[in-house]
Structure formats: structure tokens, C-alpha cells
Amino acid sequence: MHVHTGHKSHVCEVCNKSFSNKPYLQVHMYTHTGEKPYKCSMCKKSYAYKSCLRIHQQIHSGGKPHTCRVCKKSFAYGSALKSHMIIHIGKKSHTCNLCRKSFFKKSALQSHMIVHSNEKLHVCNICDKSFKTKASLQSHQSVHTGEKPHVCTICKKSFMQKARLQLHYMSHTGEKPYTCVTCKKSFAEKSVLQSHMLYHTGVKRHSCDKCSKSFFRK
After folding, report:
1. Where is the C2H2-type domain (predicted)?
2. Is the pLDDT score of 90 beyond 60?
């Protein structure tokens, strides 16, 4: 009857929070004791709540019960689906206060802020070169190992960096996404477009140290 009357007679002796029945109080007490009685039989990870254990077990079963109604992509967690839905809404509510660039997720904004910082916390243990992001460090380390894990599915050519593989794919597709605003000529790589733009500006950045003659390209 407590459910209907709203009466909560079971009170936590630690924080004085009250509950309508004893089982709710018992579960609540785990937040104070740190007890996690619900254990995963596969990885031994423990949880205070049975519902949390059920959600966790979807990782092992491969179950993804939460499906996006727009694109039909499925997720193991409701929170992941909620985060995904922002893409369809199109609202980028997290804005950088330095350059005003906006992002769908707060985590993406936090990652972006590294661009404005001079901090380079990720250090190569071989040459001590430091990087702003862990991904940049991992990409750099392939220089030391010689590993080329990124393989073209068309011609099987391999690359150290994923970005180089993506550029390489354009040689197969013929895609040239970088267009000169002056003459409308297009290029597959941004760096090539930047070099091309020098012809329009007249800037010759590369000078001979013997005769001082200048050139567009090195």
C-alpha cells in the first residue's frame, strides 16, 4: 500500500534517504558499502545492480537491442543510441570558445581543444618525440617499427598511416576533393592544392643559397 499512499517508511541510516519498501533500501545501501553482489560469469566484473549486469552482459552476447529508427543502426546501450541520434538531429551544441567550431559530442570538443593547447603529453619511448594525441603517437611509432598495417583492398599496397591510405584510394576512385578557388582546378591532396596556389599568388618560397634565385617548389 505504500506505493499508492506515497509513504516511505524505510529510511537509510547513513544519508536519511527514504524508500517505499525494504528491498529498495537494501539495494540503495550498496552505494554506501561499495558492495557489488552481481557478478558476470564470463569476465567476473561486478555490479551493484542487477539491471547494470544485464546491460553489461550484452557485450558478451553481441546483442544490440537499441535500434535507430532513422538509419537502423543498432547499439548495445540506450545511452549509445541517444548519443548517436544527435547526428540525425544535426545540432552541434558543443562549441569551442576559441575558434567557434562546433561538435555533436562534448568528448569531440574536448579532443578538439588539444589543437589550441601547446601540451604534448604523449611521448614516444624510442625517440622522445612528443605528440598532442595518443592517435598521433601511435601513427608515429610505425616509423620505428616499419609496420604498415593499413592495406589497400584494391591493389594491396600498404601504408604506415590510415590518412595516407585514404589519400591513396583517391588514385583508384579519381576523386579530387580539393579545388582551387581561382582556376577551379582540382587535386586529390590538400598539400598539392596549397603548392598550386603559389602560382596564383606569385610567392616563391624556395630560394637557392648560392645565387638567391627563387622557385615555387622545392
Report:
1. 10-37, 38-65, 66-93, 94-121, 122-149, 150-177, 178-205
2. yes
